Amino acid sequence: MALALLVPGGRGQLGRDVVAAAPGDGLVHAPSSAELDLTDAPAVADAVGAFAATARDAGLRPVVVNAAAYTAVDAAETDADRAFAVNAAGPGHLAESCREHRVPLLHVSTDYVFPGDGVRPYEPSDETGPRSVYGRTKLDGERRVLSTWDRSWVVRTAWVYGEHGNNFVKTMARLAGANDTLSVVDDQVGSPTWSLDLAHGLVELAGAVSAGGAPPRVLHATGDGETTWCGFARAIFAELGLDPERVRPCTTADFPRPAPRPAYSVLSGKAWADAGLTPLRHWREALSAAVATRAVP
């Protein structure tokens, strides 16, 4: 039986790639955040109910993949109410509606739920401890989803870039054309993740849970391997045929931001692989493929 996917946030960077990754024999409805505002509980209930009915009438297995989020990390420090409404209350409404209509829910979260002081890749079971408003709202959203509906899954990811929207790869490409050298932070470590690779992983997980599978309810999905923002930037320059040495290392202290950034936010993919899901490829290989296919910059 084929899949039907409802993708809130479907016009965003990840949402568009979920649409692209979805199998062609099913149904995909990917409303933008303006078309489906997760903070509007009645609208969420109506949307999930209509989607579930349409999918089942067509003989399809419905799954909701929540790609909607407030992702302005620095702005969240002074816009906490809005960030909370979108990242915490909204997913709670979605989980309530999914429970009512017996629809599995996949909710995308972030490395920012961890304190960022680790020395080894974070496992899903590791203690959380967000240090930013954004991280706290995302953790609250995770908890609401997991406690509301037992057919909900949280998928944490990190350092996402892709064809749509603004991201680090596009920023580096733009700045490279306007500057002889760039200073990029070299003391924050993470795993770059191509949004299309993540989308394929989410679709694979959707297929598994819609068929009755029960993988661990919190999973991590990022590009394999790790680097710093400076290392990532140098790799981007190399892929664009530019001199990587134009990227100069600096420290977090050199570029203070309103929201604290995790110094170490590598997420372990062990639980993902142990659940029988296809590991995302190495971040460097994915970057090469993204540039080669003109998905970025």
Q: Would you mind describing this structure in some detail?
A:
Helix content is 39%, strand content 15%. By secondary structure, the protein is an alpha/beta fold. The protein has one domain: Rossmann fold. A six-stranded parallel β-sheet has the order 2-1-3-4-5-10, sandwiched between helices. The protein has a two-stranded parallel ribbon with strand order 6-9. Strands 7-12 form a two-stranded parallel ribbon. The two termini are 37 Å apart.
Give the number of domains: 1
Mean pLDDT: 97
Percentage of residues in strands: 5-15%
What is the count of DSSP helices, taking H or I runs of 4+ residues? 9
Distance between the termini: 37 Å
The low-confidence parts are none
The level-1 CATH class? Alpha Beta
For the record, the CATH architecture stands as 3-Layer(aba) Sandwich
List the defining traits of the structure above.
297 residues, alpha/beta, Rossmann fold, 6-stranded parallel β-sheet
Topology summary:
Blueprint: E1 3-6, H1 13-21, E2 27-29, H2 41-57, E3 61-66, H3 80-101, E4 105-110, H4 133-148, E5 152-157, E6 160-161, H5 168-176, E7 182-185, E8 189-190, E9 193-194, H6 195-210, E10 218-220, E11 227-228, H7 229-239, E12 247-250, H8 270-274, H9 283-292
